[in-house]
Amino acid sequence: LSISPVVGHHLIGAVSWLPASQQHLGVLCLVALHHLLAPVHNLFHVLLYAGLAYAVLDRARAARRHALVMRVLTVEPMPVDSAVLLAAKRVGLDPARVRVVEGLPNPAFTTGWWQPQVFVARDLPQRLSLNELEAVLAHEAEHVRRRDPLRLFLLRSLAGVLFWLPAIRRLVADLADEAEIAADDAAARTHALPLASAILRMAGADLGA
């Protein structure tokens, strides 16, 4: 945002009343860059409006696809003696946020903006040991704690607004990968070996399919 003449033109005026200690080189660079890009200032206004329209359309389509997918999922009640329920409690994941689904193509995933929920395949306890199941749910619990679905939605919205900066889209993709790595790291702190075993087991099942 800082390299956009729109932001530089309308917000950089704050420099005049900032304390001298904060008028450092970075601010001067932004002012200089603003002046260099001033001739195309109006073009950036057009790009900003086009980016806002594109981001709204793109995120609306993503939200609609998400709603259609979630609508067809068959959520089943979780028995009190369920291994999923036990594993969730052991890793500190609120069982009220866990949903068991028949025929889920992914072993487990987290979705939801304001109150993230974890969806788990019904047959996962049969495919994994209890420790491996705990590792999977610990991974998803970190996504819930960090509110990764909402964070990634907002970042992808920003990438849509700044569609004319391809590096932003690449950065968002890197941050999505980083979210998975952070969740793996959190799970590995207490379930390192079970997590590795669960990944290999599920990868082997996918290859077999």
What would you note in describing this structure?
The protein has 209 residues and is of the alpha+beta class. The protein is built from eight helices and four strands. Strands 1-2-4-3 form a four-stranded mixed β-sheet, covered by helices on one side. A hairpin with a 5-residue loop joins strand 3 and strand 4 (117-121). It is elongated, with a radius of gyration of 23 Å. The model has no long low-confidence stretch (mean pLDDT 82).
Keywords, separated by commas or semicolons:
elongated; 4-stranded mixed sheet; 209 residues; 8 helices
Task: List the topology elements.
Blueprint: H1 5-11, H2 25-37, H3 41-72, E1 75-76, H4 83-90, E2 98-101, E3 108-111, E4 117-121, H5 124-127, H6 130-146, H7 148-161, H8 166-208
Parallel strand pairs: 2-4
Antiparallel strand pairs: 1-2, 3-4
Helix pairs in contact: 3-7, 4-6, 6-8, 7-8
Helix content: 55-70%
Instruction: Characterize the quaternary organization of these chains.
Output: single chain
Structural shape: elongated
Q: Strand count, sense and closure of the main sheet? A: 4 strands, mixed
Counted by DSSP, the helix tally is 8
SSE sequence, one letter per element: HHHEHEEEHHHH
Summarize model confidence as the mean pLDDT: 82
Radius of gyration: 23 Å
Return the structural class. alpha+beta
Q: Calculate the terminal CA-CA distance, rounded to whole Å.
A: 46 Å
Unreliably modeled segments: none
How much of the sequence lies in strands comes to 5-15%
**Strand order within the widest beta sheet:** 1-2-4-3
| Overall strand count | 4
